[in-house]
């Protein structure tokens, strides 16, 4: 350290004769140390920074590490204190910038410490290395200095949850919402339906067949029509008509068309039915049933 | 008859206000009448654009922002004053009331004078922070005018602002460099979506107080892009407030001044920038107007929106669930002198929300046609399978554009009993339908048998 100091003071002496005008700001003797927590002084990785070029490999800053940057600012060849000495981090994706002020002494020796606590949350969540530049400038005619000096790779402990604040409201087009419709009711495969419907319809011939084997017949039709032609025809006709009305109600009619028709047909069925059934009773009493 | 009068009145109003969309009465508050000389070019530009300027001193007895409870002026230009207060006519509350009744304010700060307390509280109210100490200004050792600020580096030379981000229209674009002398930097609160930066400081700039004894900046007020030289606020009612960090931007001296940056001679384009900023603030640009909102059931025929005000919207009041609907809306943008067809910025969309409490559908609208001064945006969609009271809502809020919130309420009803598919159309019901008709046929056959069947010989014998 003493050696370094004497070196800078000799530089100071050497640079004393240079004229201030048209000089430019820069830095020298820059060292970058990343030190883990609890490690002894000087235990961390040390890098020398060059004002003309950036470090070839990125510097990793862990969750508990602290980064220390020491440098001497120079104007021309002379160590001098500038008005502005910043370490600026730039998010490569969003362009967000955060500057850290270097604490520069009268002699031009500056230093800045950086830990995860100092960084905005956007830097902690980025996956890409963050370019870090040094900005040195001051009043007067000396040209200011700004250049990328290293890439900072911010390593985060994945097990430690990070309190990411809610992003603030900004007016912009929002995500589209397409309503998700409930699925339509589905029918079983048609072939199954047809098989079962055929089974149901086949029940009718089966029923008629069973009745026929039991000796069912319509042999008394002529006798019935002979005894009470109008009432039999009307009664059976009204039973058929009632089924017809039900069919029409199913396909096209509404209740107000159905009810009058049904009441007319019902009355006819009631009146003619009583006559027709009397005729049936007569046959029974005559022992013909 | 009523619509005829309304349209006539509108036409008349349009003829009178060939200028700002909201009116041309502009109050300029200037303490020293002698200072007026410095702004003659800017005032001349405003007058040539049709503004009627009233220049008043804050100390004037007759000065009042309101008359009979209504705004006495449409816009207010507040130039920096030497005195600490702005007087009883311009308190922070009155300025806010002025904005509440849709008045626009262009506020110019200066690092030469202390910011009046009324202005400080106004800025505090809208979450714009400025350095608390008098004289604090923005310097940049990289982009300064080498001619006028070779040593102090406090005259910044900057290009015209790029767009804020994709999807936001840039109303402040231009050619050339803007000179920003001795600006008071502003920091915008992060929570409010109403605030938007207009001109940001370059990344190497910072704000400091020259009166500070220290010869190194230790705790700057703000640094780089977080520092704004010109910032804007647009309230929910679309009243606008623009804060200019440096009143000198508006002065004749910098309107077309020779300057040098990095050894290159340039001429400042402040006149253009001042025009752009005042045009936006005084609602000559970035004003949206919604014409008709038309929706109709999609029956396979596309109807053309008639933008004439003479024909009412005639929208249906009721829709069925799961029915196809066409929606069209007409949007115009006011640009300096007339309404033009509105074109959203790249990556931005006008959106339709079909909502009951929360949106069920939020759809991007596509421009489908254009009239002389409006774009017709449209979309077709299916009403959701939920009945209730819904809104067709256009809620279009974007930085630098006046807010649009239009809605039309409709009822969405269930299927009526005769709108469902008939049972024979549902294949699963065939078994049941078959069952019913087999029963019917069986019943009729049974009736016939019961009436007319002759007893079988065999069975008769058995019973006997």
UniProtKB/TrEMBL annotation, chain A:
Primary subcellular site in the record, as a coarse category: endoplasmic reticulum
A single GO molecular function term of this UniProt record: transferase activity
Lineage top rank: taxon: Eukaryota
Keyword match Endoplasmic reticulum: yes
Pathway(s) served: Protein modification; protein glycosylation
Record's protein name: Ribophorin II
Family: Belongs to the SWP1 family.
Domain Ribophorin II C-terminal: from-to ranges: 181-284
Signal sequence region: 1-21
Function: Subunit of the oligosaccharyl transferase (OST) complex that catalyzes the initial transfer of a defined glycan (Glc(3)Man(9)GlcNAc(2) in eukaryotes) from the lipid carrier dolichol-pyrophosphate to an asparagine residue within an Asn-X-Ser/Thr consensus motif in nascent polypeptide chains, the first step in protein N-glycosylation. N-glycosylation occurs cotranslationally and the complex associates with the Sec61 complex at the channel-forming translocon complex that mediates protein translocation across the endoplasmic reticulum (ER). All subunits are required for a maximal enzyme activity.
GO cellular component terms listed in the entry, alphabetical order: oligosaccharyltransferase complex
Spans through the membrane: 191-212, 233-252
Organism: Lophiotrema nucula
Residue span(s) of domain Ribophorin II third: 50-153
Pfam families assigned to the protein according to its UniProt record, in alphabetical order: Ribophorin_II_3rd, Ribophorin_II_C
Topology relative to the membrane: Multi-pass membrane protein
Keywords: Endoplasmic reticulum, Membrane, Signal, Transferase, Transmembrane, Transmembrane helix
Compartment(s) of residence: Endoplasmic reticulum membrane
Any single GO BP term: protein N-linked glycosylation
Sections of the chain in a coiled coil: none
UniProtKB/TrEMBL annotation, chain B:
Topological type in the membrane: Single-pass type I membrane protein
Top-level taxon in the UniProt lineage: Eukaryota
Compartments (UniProt record): Endoplasmic reticulum membrane; Membrane
Record keywords, A-Z: Endoplasmic reticulum, Membrane, Signal, Transferase, Transmembrane, Transmembrane helix
Pfam families per the UniProt record, alphabetical: OST48_MD, OST48_N
Known pathway: Protein modification; protein glycosylation
Main location: endoplasmic reticulum
Domain OST48 middle intervals: 314-454
GO MF annotations in UniProt: transferase activity
Signal peptide: 1-18
InterPro entries assigned: DDOST_48_kDa_subunit, OST48_MD, OST48_N
Keyword Metal-binding: no
Residue ranges of the TM segments: 429-452
One GO-annotated biological process of the protein: protein N-linked glycosylation via asparagine
GO cellular component: oligosaccharyltransferase complex
Domain named OST48 N-terminal: residues: 25-281
UniProt family annotation: Belongs to the DDOST 48 kDa subunit family.
Entry-linked PANTHER family: DOLICHYL-DIPHOSPHOOLIGOSACCHARIDE--PROTEIN GLYCOSYLTRANSFERASE 48 KDA SUBUNIT
Subunit architecture: Component of the oligosaccharyltransferase (OST) complex.
Functional note: Subunit of the oligosaccharyl transferase (OST) complex that catalyzes the initial transfer of a defined glycan (Glc(3)Man(9)GlcNAc(2) in eukaryotes) from the lipid carrier dolichol-pyrophosphate to an asparagine residue within an Asn-X-Ser/Thr consensus motif in nascent polypeptide chains, the first step in protein N-glycosylation. N-glycosylation occurs cotranslationally and the complex associates with the Sec61 complex at the channel-forming translocon complex that mediates protein translocation across the endoplasmic reticulum (ER).
Name of protein: Dolichyl-diphosphooligosaccharide--protein glycosyltransferase subunit WBP1
Species whose genome carries this gene: Lophiotrema nucula
């Amino acid at each position: 350290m003493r050696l370094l100091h004497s070196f800078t003071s000799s530089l100071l002496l050497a640079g004393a004769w240079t004229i201030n005008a048209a000089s430019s700001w820069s830095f020298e003797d820059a060292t970058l140390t990343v030190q883990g927590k609890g490690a002894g002084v000087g235990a961390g990785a040390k890098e020398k920074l060059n004002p003309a070029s950036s470090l070839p490999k990125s510097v990793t800053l862990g969750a508990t590490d602290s980064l220390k940057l020491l440098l001497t600012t120079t104007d021309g060849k002379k160590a001098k204190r500038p008005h502005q000495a910043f370490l600026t981090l730039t998010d490569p994706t969003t362009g967000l910038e955060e500057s850290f002020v270097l604490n520069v002494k009268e002699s031009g020796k500056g230093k800045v410490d950086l830990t995860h606590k100092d960084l905005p949350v956007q830097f902690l969540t980025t996956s890409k290395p963050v370019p870090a530049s040094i900005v040195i400038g001051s009043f007067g005619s000396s040209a200011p200095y700004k250049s990328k000096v290293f890439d900072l790779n911010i390593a985060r402990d994945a097990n430690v949850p990070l309190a990411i604040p809610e992003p603030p409201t900004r007016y912009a087009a929002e995500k589209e919402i397409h309503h998700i419709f409930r699925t339509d009711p589905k029918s079983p495969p048609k072939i199954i339906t047809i098989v079962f419907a055929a089974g149901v319809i086949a029940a009718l011939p089966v029923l008629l067949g069973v009745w026929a084997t039991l000796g069912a017949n319509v042999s008394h039709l002529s006798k019935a029509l002979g005894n009470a032609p109008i009432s039999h025809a009307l009664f059976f006709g009204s039973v058929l008509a009632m089924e017809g009305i039900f069919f029409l109600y199913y396909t096209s009619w509404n209740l107000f068309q159905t009810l009058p028709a049904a009441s007319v047909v019902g009355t006819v069925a009631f009146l003619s039915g009583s006559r027709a059934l009397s005729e049936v009773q007569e046959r029974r009493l005559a022992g013909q049933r | 008859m009523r619509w005829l009068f309304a349209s006539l009145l509108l036409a008349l109003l349009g003829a009178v206000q060939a200028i700002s969309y909201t009116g041309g009465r502009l109050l300029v508050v200037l303490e020293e009448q002698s200072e007026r000389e410095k702004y003659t070019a800017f005032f001349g530009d405003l007058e040539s654009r049709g503004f009627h300027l009233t220049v008043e001193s804050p100390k004037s007895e007759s000065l009042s922002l309101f008359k009979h409870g209504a705004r006495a002026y449409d816009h207010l230009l507040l130039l920096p004053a030497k005195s600490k207060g702005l007087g009883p006519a311009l308190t922070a509350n009155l300025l806010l009331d002025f904005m509440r009744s849709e008045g626009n304010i262009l506020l110019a700060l200066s690092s030469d004078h202390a910011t009046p307390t009324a202005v400080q509280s106004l800025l505090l109210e809208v979450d714009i922070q400025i350095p608390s100490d008098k004289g604090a200004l923005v310097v940049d050792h990289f982009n300064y005018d080498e001619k006028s600020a070779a040593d102090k580096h406090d005259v910044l030379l900057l290009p015209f602002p790029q767009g804020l981000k994709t999807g936001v229209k840039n109303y402040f674009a231009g050619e050339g460099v803007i000179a920003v002398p001795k600006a008071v930097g502003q920091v915008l609160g992060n929570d409010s979506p109403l605030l938007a930066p207009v001109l940001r400081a370059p990344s190497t700039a910072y704000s400091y107080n020259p009166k500070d004894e220290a010869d190194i900046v230790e705790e700057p007020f703000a640094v780089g892009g977080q520092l704004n030289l010109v910032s804007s606020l647009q309230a929910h009612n679309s009243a606008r407030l623009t804060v200019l960090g440096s009143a000198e931007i508006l002065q004749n001296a910098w309107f077309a001044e020779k300057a040098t940056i990095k050894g290159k001679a340039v001429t400042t384009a402040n006149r253009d920038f001042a025009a752009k900023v005042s045009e936006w603030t005084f609602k000559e640009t970035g004003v949206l107007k919604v014409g008709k909102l038309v929706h109709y059931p999609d029956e396979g025929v596309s109807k053309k929106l008639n933008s004439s005000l003479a024909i009412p919207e005639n929208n249906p009041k009721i829709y069925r669930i799961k029915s196809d609907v066409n929606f069209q809306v007409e949007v115009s943008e006011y640009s300096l002198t007339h309404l033009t067809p509105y074109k959203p910025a790249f990556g931005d969309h006008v959106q339709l929300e079909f909502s009951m409490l929360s949106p069920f559908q939020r759809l991007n609208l596509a421009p489908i046609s254009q009239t002389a001064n409006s774009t017709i945006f449209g979309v077709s969609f299916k009403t959701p399978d939920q009945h209730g009271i819904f809104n067709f809502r256009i809620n279009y809020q974007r930085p630098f554009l006046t807010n649009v919130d239009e809605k039309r309420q409709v009822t969405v009803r269930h299927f009526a009993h005769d709108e469902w598919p008939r049972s024979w159309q549902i294949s699963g019901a065939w078994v049941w339908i078959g069952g019913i008709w087999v029963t019917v046929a069986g019943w009729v056959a049974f009736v016939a048998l019961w009436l007319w069947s002759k007893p079988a010989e065999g069975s008769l014998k058995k019973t006997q």
